[in-house]
Design brief:
Elements (H helix, E strand, L loop, with lengths): L3 H8 L2 H11 L2 E7 L2 E2 L9 H9 L4 E9 L11 H7 E4 L1 E7 L2 H17 L6 E4 L5 E5 L7 E2 L2 E2 L6 H25 L4 H8 L3 H4 E5 L5 E5 L5 E3 L9 E3 L14 E2 L35 H9 L11 E2 L2 E2 L16 H6 L7 H14 L4 H15 L6 H8 L37 H32 L17
Antiparallel strand pairs: 1-2, 1-3, 3-4, 3-13, 5-7, 5-12, 6-7, 6-14, 8-9, 10-11, 15-16
């Protein structure tokens, strides 16, 4: 927990205040009080506000990816059309998250290189403050219009597609670079990420039809593609991080691989001349990236083949929706209703349900009942319908359990049970419990069938030799 003296010492710095205010222009701001977020919408206009909020125990500052004409006019009941009228743009913000800092640095460096390869000149990078990096491209670097559509109205579809396009194009090289960093020692990677070999390895069929082992970085390194949603917030540059006590520090692109966490200590941090998401751009340098990403067709169904001892196993097939009894504590708590963050809850729930066998109609009916009966101030039904309009069940996972913008960020203070620590995502919890249920059910059925067969053959009687004859034996 950050001490009051640390907060005041850091946020009273004029260079820190100025950098935060510069970044806050046209953005919705969210402030955090250690474990809880303040009321939204909020905005920052004057440097002195930063210190005033620190005096009120605000620990960190967060900004929206979207740019708004008037951030204070936002509210949770606005329709998609009303949001588009308020939105004047959006920034591309990629969040790299991995427990192993060296792997995060490799990923950040590769993304920067790929963006440059695509012709993007206006790239920013900063240490997130804890385990990863944020990479940004300002809206001004994108064209104002693509075809007949204003680029400002392509949110969140365009940044999602860009993120997936980047992720798909760097995955092979990312796996190679991480392996090289460990001298091709898979055991070293397993030990660091605390996963089994079948989790960190995947097998792909080469042109000759032979399955070739590849490093499966998705299991331990996340390039955020699913959290690019309307009014999603990220930690602002020069904001402190509650868990690490470090500063979210902008960096020079060429020095990402040299970064060490001691550079971000609040007592020694130097505010560089680098501006994260600098709006003084070199023309529409991100045009090619946007056009290519929009044309890029990502596989809707990801085929994952696991080979162990040269044996191929089929993926789990869900034939009917998995019911609430198998849901994790976080989802059950969310389903009780919320005061704030209902839109983010809809995003979590629809992707969660879509991954556990629910179809679109079932999800819509379920969310409508939840919204009406569990939330004291329900969302407008048109909002839920708009979110489901282009939704395909099973395409995306919900946010991971440790994602601060969701769950805790919307007041879902989870009370994990003895199983939760084994899983990174709520879907994995549910699928594992459900599979165990099916195995137990199958075992019980097989046991019953064996007993029936024994009974039919007269084998269910206990042999005389096994009947206890003394009180002690009994």
């Amino acid at each position: 927990m950050l001490s009051k003296s640390t907060l005041l010492k850091h946020y009273k710095r004029k260079d820190v205040q100025d950098a935060i205010i510069t970044h806050a222009h046209n953005k919705e701001i969210g402030v955090r009080y250690d474990e809880a977020f303040g009321k939204r919408p909020d905005a920052l206009f004057y440097a002195k506000e930063v210190l005033e909020l620190a005096l009120q125990n605000v620990t960190s500052f967060h900004a929206s990816e979207e740019l708004w004409d008037n951030p204070l006019a936002l509210n949770s009941n606005l329709s998609k059309k009303e949001l588009e009228e308020l939105r004047i743009g959006w920034d591309l913000l990629l969040d790299i998250d991995c427990k192993i800092m060296e792997y995060s640095k490799i990923s950040a460096d590769l993304i920067i290189r790929f963006l440059r390869y695509c012709g993007v000149k206006d790239i920013s990078v900063k240490f997130s403050g804890n385990k990863g990096f944020h990479i940004g491209v300002p809206f001004e670097a994108f064209p104002k219009q693509v075809g007949n559509t204003l680029t400002k109205d392509l949110f969140p579809e365009a940044p999602r597609k860009i993120a997936l396009y980047i992720k798909e194009n760097i995955k092979e090289e990312l796996g190679k670079r991480i392996l090289q960093s460990e001298n091709n020692d898979i055991a070293a990677i397993k030990a660091k990420v605390h996963l089994e070999q079948e989790d960190v390895m995947r097998f792909e069929k080469n042109p000759e039809g032979v399955f070739v082992p590849k490093l499966n970085v998705d299991k331990f390194l996340e390039i955020d593609t699913i959290l690019l949603a309307s009014r999603h917030l990220y930690r602002m540059p020069y904001s402190l991080h509650e868990k690490s006590g470090l500063v979210s520090l902008p960096l020079e692109l060429e020095k990402v691989l040299e970064f060490s966490k001691d550079q971000a200590h609040p007592d020694t941090v130097i505010v560089p001349s680098i501006i994260f998401m600098n709006r003084m751009v070199s023309g529409e340098s991100a045009r090619q990236l946007l056009v290519q990403a929009l044309d890029f067709k990502v596989k809707l169904v990801e085929e994952r083949e696991s080979v162990q001892k040269e044996k191929q196993y089929d993926e789990l097939v869900i034939e009917s929706p998995i019911t609430e009894e198998f849901f994790p504590p976080c989802m059950k708590m969310m389903l009780k209703g919320l005061e704030d963050g209902k839109k983010r809850a809809v995003f979590c729930l629809m992707n969660f349900l879509g991954k556990i066998g629910w179809n679109k109609q079932q999800i819509e009916e379920y969310l409508m009942i939840w919204n009406k009966e569990k939330n004291r101030e329900p969302l407008r039904e048109v909002y839920i319908k708009s979110q489901l309009a282009h939704f395909e069940p099973g395409q995306r996972l919900p946010p991971n359990c440790d994602n601060e913008a969701y769950y805790q960020g919307i007041g879902v203070v989870c009370q994990p049970n003895e199983h939760c620590h084994k899983f990174k995502n709520p879907v994995n919890y549910t699928l594992t419990r459900w599979k165990r249920h099916l195995w137990d059910k199958q075992e019980e059925e097989e046991k019953g069938q064996r007993q029936k067969k024994r009974k039919k053959k007269g084998e269910d009687k206990i042999p005389a030799a096994e009947i206890p004859t003394t009180e002690e034996q009994r």
